[in-house]
Amino acid sequence: MAEEHLERIFQDKIDEEIRIEPKDWMPDAYRKTLIRQMSQHAHSEIVGMLPEGNWITRAPSLRRKATLIAKVQDEAGHGLYLYSAAETLGITREEMIAQLHSGKAKYSSIFNYPTLTWADIGAIGWLVDGAAIMNQVPLCRASYGPYARAMIRICKEESFHQRQGFEILLTLSRGSEAQKRMCQDAINRWWWPAVMMFGPSDESSPHTAQSMQWRIKRFTNDELRQKFIDVCAEQCTILGMTIPDAELKWNPEKNHYDFGPINWEEFWNVVNGHGPCNKERLDARIKADAEGAWVRQAAFEYANKKKEKEQRKVA
Amino acid sequence: MSSNDWPLWEVFIRSKQGLDHKHAGSLHAADAQMAIENARDVYTRRMEGVSIWVVESKNIHASNPSEGPSLYDPANDKIYRHPTFYKLPEELKNM
Fold first, then answer.
1. From A52, A61, A212, B74, which residue has the greatest number of CB atoms within 10 Å?
2. What CATH class has A1-220?
């Protein structure tokens, strides 16, 4: 069948909200876009374990430690769902990992910021997971079946993450003066990076129009960002804390909050590898991969040996 | 084959006694035992399952989507296989 004809069938399916499955015909660019987005998403889950893992041994109570471990374990699981969903597009796990390590594949820039105090764990849960959820809920209806199914599983698990974060901040916000200061300081440092998580604004987002036509994306970066800011501005009043934006103000005409300018220079700087922790994060991943190599090899050899033994027994 | 090439396994989970195993996703593991243990950690952290099946992905054979129309064609014109095909009087209840 002619490419043009196949492409029309493909787009018709998408327009009718029929999901695309791994063995269906799809345009090369659609496959490439999905591989880029899904692998980037998977890498973000995996790298995202590092800033939080930093506080597992120093969590202030057993309850906090248990919930943080559970959360970090969830992130590992989310990375695995996404890696296997991406593999259905014909890329191998090894290729994806190699692209992360070489810097060819990106991960969310937010994880290049350090977690300096315990309050950061709260701020990550509230703001970073909050922004992630805002992004991820529409992805549950993404046109590619395996991606949508992975996202449904992820979203179900993600809501506990945000709640545990908010609870940490709420506890600090009702604590001593020092704890309140710690809470506000974490919000000050995480607010803008979280706002930037939605990516460049619509006029400078090259992939948005095509991704919307393919129903990989359903809302633009700026639409999701606005929604996030509106929700957080309200939630912050429960904490009795301040969002570090002097221009944040309810606009009754627009029915949205107005907010101050975003520092895009900082955003691109961190994307391009010059954030506070870019090198540390990548080094940690490369080290984990290298130090785990012998374990993977041993398990592989053991499985082979066992298989051979069984085959000999049968013969 | 490099040491990294653990085969891919498809995971099926029975969520509750009495229900079918349903496809949950896939993962890499060196052997079946490890695949089951990994599946427990990846897909049943919140008691989503009471039983796990794993099958090496290479052992699954699938129908070809482009042959879909001809493959399912024989069922297309047999609406008499559905109960609603039969016109029966209103007073006949519960059939």
1. A52
2. mainly alpha
